[in-house]
Amino acid sequence: MTQKEKAKRSFILDLTSEARSLIHHGKFEEALVCYDKILAEYPDELVIEYEKAIAFFEFGDFPAALELLDRILARDPQNINALYAKGAILNNLKKFQQALSFFDQVIQLDPEFQSVWTAKGFALLGLQEHEKALDCFQTVKEQKQDKELLIGKGHAFRHLSQYKKARNCYQQVLRRDPYAAGALFGLGVLALINNDLKRARDYLYKSVAQDEANLEAWKQLAEVYRRLDDSKREAIVREKIAQLQK
To answer: Residue 34 in contact with residue 16, Cβ under 8 Å?
Structure first.
C-alpha cells in the first residue's frame, strides 16, 4: 500500500467512524457533514454514498435515501446492497410490487443472501400472497431464522388459517423478546379469532404499547373492546385510529 493509499484509508476510516458514532447518538446532520467531506474528496466512493443513504433511511428521509441509491445503481447496476436497500425502503413505503423487483434482482445475484428472502416474504404478505410469502420465509436456513422472519412466518400461517403453526412462530419470538410487537399482535389476533377476548385485549394492548403506529393492531383492539361492551375504551381507541388515518 502506497503512502497516498494509506492516507486515503485513514481519512475515510476516521470520518466514517465519527459519522457512525454521531448517528448512534442521534446527531444526524453532523454525521452527514462527515460523509460529505469524504465524498467531496473521493466522489467515486460508492460505499460511502451507500452509508449516507442508509443514514437517511434510518432517520426516515426515504426520498433522499432513494435518490442516493439510484445514483449508486446508475453507476453500478448490480450493487447488491443498494438493490436490497432500495427494496427495503419501497417495502416501508408499502410499494410492495416495486420492492419485489429489487428483491428478485438480489436473489438472482446471490440466492444465499438470507435477509432478502425475509424482506420478499413481507412484500408478498403486503400483496396478500400468503402462500408465496410462506415459501420465502421457509427458504431461509434454520440457523438464520431471526425474530422478523418468525413473525413473518406467523403472519403467513395465520392468513392461511394454520393457527397452531402461527402460534408456535409467535411464541418462539416471545421467548427471545417478550416485547416483540409483531408477535404480540399476532397472538392477539389469534385470541380474538378464538373469542378469547381478555387474552386478545392483553396481547393487543401490549402490542400497541410497543408499536404505537400499528393501525391494524388498534383496529383489532377496538373490536375487542366492542365485543366486551367497553364503549369508553373503544371510543378512545377509535380516536387513536382516526389520528393514525389522517
So the answer is: yes
Whole-number Å distance between alpha carbons of 173 and 146? 8
- Full-model pTM: 0.81
Say whether pLDDT at 238 is over 70: yes
Give yes or no for a contact between 136 and 117, defined as CB atoms under 8 angstroms apart. Answer: yes
Residue 43 CB neighbours (<10 A) = 10
* Confidence class for position 56, pLDDT limits 50, 70, 90: very high
Q: How many whole angstroms separate alpha carbon 217 and alpha carbon 152?
A: 15
- pLDDT for res 145: 65
3 state SS of 77? coil
Residue with cell 393492531: 217
What is the distance between the alpha carbons of residues 173 and 234, in angstroms, rounded to a whole number? 29
Give the per-residue pLDDT at 76.
95
- Three-state DSSP at 211 gives coil
Residue 33 to residue 52: CA distance in whole angstroms: 10
Q: How does residue 51 score in pLDDT terms, banded at 50, 70 and 90?
A: very high
Q: How far is CA 84 from CA 59, 66, 89, 132, in A?
A: 18, 12, 9, 19
Torsion of Cα atoms, 140 then 217 then 187 then 172, to 10°:
40
Domains in the chain (CATH in brackets) are: 1-77 (1.25.40.10)
Cell numbers representing residue 195 in the block? 373469542
What is the distance between the alpha carbons of residues 183 and 190, in angstroms, rounded to a whole number? 11
Q: How far apart are CA 97 and CA 177, in angstroms?
A: 31
